[in-house]
């Protein structure tokens, strides 16, 4: 609907500009001569020809505006913004548990990397929510970040103490608004939920430490690109 309204507005504007120029430059007579010569029209009132000519030009602009999407092209030239989907997930989203051998407490880290695929420096503001084995963050994490073309931006959440159970389940959701740092203020938005499912590893690392790797199922949900 917005595109149609801006197209009509552009057509009306061009119609008025064409009519004003025709009047100021005396083009009505020239338009009448062309109409009689090439279209075989009878003699018409000059003012009527002027209005018809302006209306025709306005209609052409309206059609071109819709077909060629000139409104978005003009806006992009004046205030550029990153292409849609400029910060996709790259690599594998990671869920990691760590056991403190002294206290037995378990911490968890969740993170995901986003890759800047645009051709400009991107600045972002984000909000993170996360849950690990039923434990939520006390409050959403608000932050900022930036990435040059081809660089990564990491979204990271840490829980200092989480409950453990046989079926391990974690969620992280991010909602991120981003724009070109220098060239404009028009934003894009990307949002996604990530789910990790796995089983509690059998046994524990030895006294010297180490790590236990388990296969994890990762799913995405509530994905938004706009």
Task: Please write out the topology.
Layout: H1 2-25, H2 28-38, H3 46-68, H4 70-78, E1 89-99, E2 106-115, E3 122-132, E4 135-136, E5 141-147, E6 152-159, E7 167-180, E8 188-199, E9 217-225
Helix pairs in contact: 1-3, 2-3
Structural account:
The chain is an alpha+beta fold. The chain is 30% helix and 37% strand. It has helices spanning 2-25, 28-38, 46-68, 70-78; strands spanning 89-99, 106-115, 122-132, 135-136, 141-147, 152-159, 167-180, 188-199, 217-225. A hairpin with a 2-residue loop joins β3 and β4. The model has no long low-confidence stretch (mean pLDDT 77).
Write out key terms for the chains shown.
3-stranded antiparallel sheet; 6-stranded antiparallel sheet; elongated; 226 residues; 4 helices
